[in-house]
């Protein structure tokens, strides 16, 4: 079962994040480690926000113990991250070799007051397959039910592509199934992202 992971490292910097990646042997916008489906990182609230989806909780826990913890300390990140986990209901992504090289990628986190059945209806109307590639310009997407809301986390190649998709796809179809506009929408300018290899 895929698991969503949200890690906030208070007071961490992009330079420290970059050093952790270097120590892990990972390349920005390349392929992630074994077991990771996708990852993005952005500055947030005076620190670094990292959002991942892993194929299995056990693999994430092993990676956190063997690599995230030790390499973060080595890069000077002393505070443990604030961590939130959630079961992933659905995801879409493009493998690392198929990712475009956008100039200004963004993450969008949307909380809807609706049901997973309504989410399924919208995905069917948009003709987006389960666990396959998403629409053009969408690098990855995942959804979880968290505290009674449907949280959708996407990464898009740029804000313009997302805005166009939201106006012509998300808005009409969510309205059609009776779901109101999202209660919250948060945008992040990405520092880095990567996905699983092909």
Supply the key terms.
about 200 residues, alpha+beta, Alpha-Beta Plaits, five-stranded antiparallel sheet, globular
Question: What's the gist of this structure?
Answer:
This protein is an alpha+beta fold and 198 residues long. Helices cover 29% and strands 35% of the residues.
Structure, explained:
This protein is an alpha+beta fold. The chain has 2 domains: 3-87, 2-Layer Sandwich (Alpha-Beta Plaits); 92-191, Alpha-Beta Plaits, CATH 3.30.70. It has helices spanning 14-24, 57-74, 116-125, 159-176, and strands at residues 3-10, 36-44, 47-54, 82-87, 90-93, 106-112, 138-146, 149-156, 184-189, 192-195. The strands form 2 sheets. The protein has a 5-stranded antiparallel beta sheet with strand order 4-1-3-2-10. Helix 3 (116-125) crosses helix 4 (159-176).
Would you report the number of β strands? Answer: 10
* Structural classification: alpha+beta
Q: Return the average pLDDT rounded to an integer.
A: 92
Spatial sequence of strands, sheet with the most strands: 4-1-3-2-10
Largest sheet composition: 5 strands, antiparallel
What's the quaternary structure here? Answer: single chain
* The CATH class of the largest domain: Alpha Beta
Number of domains: 2
Number of DSSP helical runs:
4
CATH fold-type name of the largest domain: Alpha-Beta Plaits
Order of helices and strands: EHEEHEEEHEEHEE
- Measured as a percent range, the helix fraction is 25-40%
Low-confidence spans: pLDDT under 50, at least 5 residues?
none
Report the CATH architecture of the largest domain.
Answer: 2-Layer Sandwich
Q: Work out the strand percent.
A: 25-35%
Provide the gyration radius in Å.
Answer: 16 Å
Span between termini: 20 Å
